[in-house]
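Sequence in, structure out.
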Amino acid sequence: VTIPCFKVDQARRLGNKSVLKTHPELCKRHEGTWYLDPGMPGTADYLTAICNEITGRYDIDGLHFDYIRYPENARNFPDQSTYRKYGRGQNKAQWRRDNITRCVRQIYRSVKARKPWVRISSSPIGKFADLQRYSSKGWNAFEAVHQDAQGWLNEGIHDMLFPMMYFDGDHFYPFALDWQENNRNRPVIPGLGIYFLSPNEKNWDFGVIQRELFFLRHIGSGGQAYFRTRFLLDNVKGIYDYLRRFYYPYPALTPVC
């Protein structure tokens, strides 16, 4: 599930099936892409209806939110008119966070009322917020894209998180520990940027991923995820062999959530 985003030409190809045609009042264009405006009350209803349809029609184990946030360069997102109408004098950054949380909360409660066993998760930005000793360098979930993912855990409207931690060094370790220390006894499963092992990307030494794996195991994280699967299955720099033979030699139970 995402806050739907379409390039202009993609939206045109969808024709009358596009949300631009069915719910134009919910859509905003930002840097050449169309998005649902989270500040519009109907956005939460629209996403909830989609999730209810999926949950009702199919025997699913979970729903995963990918792009459940404001877009990059959110400062320029054209929601001024929405804010004037619905902001009620609230701080705009907090208002935006509340908008995303409202979508998450409404979907969570609706899906759980229908099928309590369906798990709800998401992939927030890998750094939640600036830490006391470490800066996120302007790229984090809470401030940059208005995504209060730790708040979702605290409120109990998420079953697990898969933060996108495609970083190294001081951009990874303190922020991974921050997620774990604020997990509210729910699994937090960092996603590792194994695509950076590719010579066509950053050509990381395999030791970067190896050190991150052992750190996550040391702090007791809920597991690991990998982006992208192709680099794992292609065994880039021997990662598949390493995981199969050494890091995951035995079956494991999935985390309780």
